Amino acid sequence: MAKCETIDLFQLVHESAPFTFSRDDILQQIVHILVLSNVMLKDEVEELFEINFVEFIRRDMEGTDLYTRRRIAQIQNCLGSFAASPKENWKCKDCAIYLVVSLATKRAGGSSVSTELVEVDKFFRSVIVPELRQQDVNASLMLKAAALKFFTVFWNQVPKYITISLLPVVICFLTADSNVVHSYAATCIEKLFLVIDDGSKARYTSADLSPVLLMLMTNLFTALKKTDSEDNQYVMKCIMRVLGIADITKDVYLQCISGLATVLMRVCQNPINHIFNHYLFESVAVLIRWGTEEDPPFCQKLKMSFFLSSKWYWLKKYLKVWKRTANVPALVRLLLAFLRKAPLELNQQGKLLMVLGIFNTLVSSHITDEFGFYVLNTVIENVGYDVLSTYISHIWDPLYERLDFNLTEKFTKSLLIFMSLFLVKYEAKNLVNSMNDVRPNAFPAILEKVWMPNLKLITGPLEIKLTSVEPIRLINESPTSLDSKLWRKMLDSVVTLLSRPEEERVLEELEVPDFWETVFDNPTFVHLYNAEKKEEDPLKEIMDPKLFLQIKPHYCSFAAHITFYSEVFPILLLWWPSGVRVRLYVSFDKNEVHIATPKN
């Protein structure tokens, strides 16, 4: 605060009596006596550098000093004092670097500086580069940190060829004993790969990184072994960034598996830094993605390094973790992976009932109901109806309860998608019978009061395809459950859904919580960028739901076909591109009636 108060006092006096202090010699004396004496590095800051690197970096690099008032005056004097006696006056050089960096932070984005006041390129070559090229990474530590910070702030103005030549030098600083120095080195490297040139093209690519990649990863994991840097978020963020950009080789892959597995095992015992943990899991996700896509045999090493030997024991042992909302998205993703890979085990030792219990817990809350449907849909996709039918009441009872007492738009959309998927996997008769067996006449009531009025709410291309195709199948496969008025309403709902403009049918973006705002408050799920979920299309054979029309006549009379097609033909013609003349063919066989266009 002494620095800021001194400058504020200087400004106040200057504004109050401008004529008294207008002489250059007086202003120069005030700047030298009041300002520079307070912006010069203090002993307590030097002590903080040595004993609490996290707090030093927070104050120095992340903008805690709100004033940033060190001015450019006396920069040359500071450099001159340093040149006269480098050993005694090293703080003068630190002061000069700080002054230039402070000037940069006053510009938009902190990436530009007025060339009328400071020639950044000249200052970088004459002051910063010599400091970086000193071979002893453990000498003049505060000057090394200042030089690395300068490089990080002005990375956008340093020519690429100079940066590439300095990259091995910066990598060496990762082995420095000083926590601040190797943290600044990691930050410098990480920021370099965010530089975007004109045309939105990355300045530095994997090709620039490949020659030093193995050394870089070795030194990064070395930094994580330094005292007090075991949970260094700056180093782990650099690991994450490098893995996301680099062309990973097998040597690097094996090195990272070993290093990250060791870190992960330690973190699981005492997860103290949420930011570090997030970057750790992002890094692991990159390795998993690379291993599964580029070299599947190496997946075995991933399993041995990262994953549990038993797939199901945690369901019983850690049921309490499901009670914390922040844990639910990640736990559901993990559970879905187990369900897809080991569906046959579900019918053993009550595992399916256990999974349905998790579904029941999740779907009963409006906060987690969507995740409950994820679990239920995955069960439907991977378990036969002969197995699931025994537990059907465990599905419909909680759904009916929500319909009766806590119906929301989100729940309704998820329910329609689930019922459509049920139709795909188990056919219409099983859907109708299972619903009515648990609650008599439930199906027609839900169809009329929930399904048809809310079909228009569905968004997303796969969801629209699923919920528009399956009602058509329902109409034709289970006509006894629908009177003519109901199936006409259902058809009208499908037409309304498919006729919406494309921009209105885009899937809404999930609101991902801001990581930096939530990580220090109550635990919140943070999405992993490198662990994107791939959506599976349950109707791959159907390219366009508008052109899908298939009727099974052994359920309907011929008169019903004629009535149905009298509704459908005008709709198809409306959907057809304007100016295109086409004939529609109706073909009958003993099982099906099709409407199609000629192939030629």
Automatic annotation (TrEMBL):
GO BP field: protein export from nucleus; protein import into nucleus
User: Where does the Exportin-2 central domain start and stop, copy by copy?
Assistant: 20-73, 74-189
**What InterPro entries does the annotation carry?**
ARM-like, ARM-type_fold, XPO2_C, XPO2_central
Q: Any transmembrane segments, and where?
A: none
Q: Which GO terms describe its molecular function?
A: nuclear export signal receptor activity; small GTPase binding
Q: Which residues does the UniProt record annotate as the domain Exportin-2 C-terminal?
A: 190-307, 320-550
Q: What is this protein called?
A: Transporter
Q: Which organism is it from?
A: Lithospermum erythrorhizon
Q: State the taxonomy lineage.
A: Eukaryota, Viridiplantae, Streptophyta, Embryophyta, Tracheophyta
